[in-house]
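Good morning,

Attaching, inline, the backbone tokens for the sequence recovery test we're adding to the shared suite. The designed sequence is right after.
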């Protein structure tokens, strides 16, 4: 396979350049993952009779590969990151295609584990490649555009499901086969059509855990814990409490993605203009309010309209999480990006391994308490984000470090 250095990539046709590959990958992954997510709650409730405890267990199982994403460090000793990411994308596609073929509890857990290995290893490598291949000055906006590209692909999937699920009498099996197969084919095309791009800074292929990155690790840990509550229980609530059907829950996802597609580049620009600290403070203050309102749905009987609005707003706030990536890009040594991405992905999933299963049992007795716990986590994240300096960089990773530097001067 031909190897091309990044500083020579501009000589290639535009469609074969690194940014084009990032966009193609960004659009291929959501086709499988978004379909799996859109159908999952209805699939497990209708086919396997899942309750809140079962869905919590499923998502805990799904997050185990994320906890072991640190294994990427060992794999990139033997496999180039670009190849590893695309092979993982093939695995995600194939596992998604097979999802409906195993409609029992054991079958669903097993195929979910396989698809999750593909998803989490792809995401780990993809984040590393983005930070290596995109210039720091352009990163916030470019990451916003990549989010929009993924949202655009997801929108197409959701529109097709909404328009054809009832009209064509589609089944879970047909939709999973089509979406997963598409993702796998695109990944194979990327493996064959693109050269291997060589970043200017060779990545360390050892375990990297640096004290000066502690705030980044803490933000990742809290983001993983908080996001799991939303991913696992917000959509499940819409099906279990409000009786959303497949096409209805997909319409909600579709509406959310349309807004995200438009908003993501603007949010990226907001991060570039106002900085990571302010962007994350806005995100976490907003998420705290949203989760408190989710709790009010159960404690005060607020209705489906509010739940729908909160779901959309929640996704908008989550889009600001790209600021965590750009914060790390600014403080990191260039050769640390790949190993730290793997470590951070593992840290992000520490809580995700046990939290969904634990909160699944809390859900059975007090669903509102689950969202109140999420609000507390958002408050902790808010406090951590206040420690980010206005202009982060090596040696200036936190506001404390900046004060120490000022005192030394």
């Amino acid at each position: 396979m031909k190897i091309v250095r990044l500083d020579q990539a501009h000589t290639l046709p535009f469609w074969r350049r690194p940014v084009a590959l990032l966009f193609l990958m960004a659009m291929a992954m959501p086709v499988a993952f978004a379909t799996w997510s859109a159908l999952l709650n209805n699939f497990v409730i209708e086919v396997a009779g899942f309750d809140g405890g079962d869905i919590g267990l499923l998502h805990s199982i799904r997050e185990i590969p994320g906890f072991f994403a640190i294994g990427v460090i060992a794999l990139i000793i033997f496999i180039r990151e670009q190849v590893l990411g695309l092979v993982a994308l093939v695995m995600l596609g194939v596992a998604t295609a097979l999802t409906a073929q195993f409609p029992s509890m054991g079958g669903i857990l097993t195929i979910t584990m396989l698809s999750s290995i593909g998803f989490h290893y792809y995401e780990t490598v993809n984040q590393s490649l983005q930070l290596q291949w995109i210039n720091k000055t352009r990163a916030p906006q470019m990451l916003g555009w990549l989010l929009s590209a993924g949202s655009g692909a997801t929108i197409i999937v959701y529109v097709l499901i909404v328009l054809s699920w009832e009209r064509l009498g589609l089944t879970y099996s047909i939709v999973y086969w089509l979406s997963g197969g598409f993702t796998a084919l695109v990944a194979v095309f990327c493996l064959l059509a693109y050269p291997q791009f060589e970043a200017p800074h060779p990545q360390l292929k050892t375990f990297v855990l640096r004290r000066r990155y502690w705030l980044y690790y803490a933000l990742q840990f809290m983001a993983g814990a908080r996001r799991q509550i939303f991913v696992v229980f917000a959509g499940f609530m819409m099906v279990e409490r409000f009786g959303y059907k497949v096409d209805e829950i997909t319409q909600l996802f579709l509406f959310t993605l349309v807004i995200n597609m438009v908003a993501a580049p603007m949010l990226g620009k907001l991060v570039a203009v106002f900085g990571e600290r302010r962007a994350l403070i806005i995100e976490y203050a907003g998420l705290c309010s949203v989760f408190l309102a989710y709790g009010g749905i159960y404690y005060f009987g607020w209705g489906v309209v509010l739940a729908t609005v909160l779901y959309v707003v929640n996704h908008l706030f989550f889009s600001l999480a790209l600021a965590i990536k750009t914060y790390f890009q600014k403080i990191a040594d260039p050769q640390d990006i790949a190993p730290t991405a793997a470590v951070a992905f593992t840290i992000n999933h520490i809580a995700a391994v046990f939290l969904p299963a634990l909160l699944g049992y809390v859900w059975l007795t007090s669903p509102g308490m689950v969202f109140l716990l999420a609000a507390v986590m958002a408050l902790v994240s808010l406090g951590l984000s206040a420690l980010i300096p206005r202009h982060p960089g090596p040696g200036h990773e936190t506001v404390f470090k900046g004060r120490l530097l000022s005192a030394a001067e």
